[in-house]
Amino acid sequence: MLIVDDHRGFRAWARAFLEAEGYRVVGEAADGAEAISAVRHLRPEVVLLDVHLPDLDGFEVARRLAAEPGPAAVVLISSRELVDFGQRVSEAGVHGFITKVELSGETLHALVGGGA
User: Fold this and answer.
1) Torsions phi, psi of 14, nearest 5?
2) How many helices (H) and strands (E) does the chain have?
3) Higher-confidence position of 113 and 36
4) CA distance 34 to 24
5) Phi, psi (deg, nearest 5) at residue 5
6) CA–CA separation, 25 and 115 (whole Å)
């Protein structure tokens, strides 16, 4: 799994939390460009991708990742609710959306399976 979020503290918390839940985190990225580069280099099975990034938004990053060979399963995350993004999430070609407060191994497993 690759965790993409511009807040270092959230990345650290998510890594520790998800590793404790049995997920293998192979890397982290702080913005969209770094995420695309990390996916190309690390080839994670799952990308946990924040919607709000300083350079590209998560929707654009997801679109670009979908064009990569053997695309990873992308799950969008945000501190905002799903309803705030309207159709953009369903049109993004991602495996799902989780609010940051609802992030858990169980919710992630429901979207992409376990141990990613």
Assistant:
1) -60, -40
2) 5, 5
3) 36
4) 19
5) -160, 145
6) 10
Which pLDDT does position 92 carry in this prediction? 85
Cβ of 67: how many Cβ atoms within 10 Å? Answer: 8
Alpha helix (H) residue ranges in 1-116:
8-20, 32-42, 58-66, 88-91, 105-112
Tokens matching residue 31:
């913005």
Residue 114 has pLDDT above 60, yes or no: no
Residue in the block written with tokens 């979207």: 111
Return the residue matching tokens 């990613």.
Answer: 116
- DSSP lists the bridge partners of residue 53 as none
Nearest to 100 by CA among 111, 92, 108, 112: 108
The secondary structure of 17-32, three-state, reads HHHHCCCCCCEEECCH
DSSP for residue 113: -
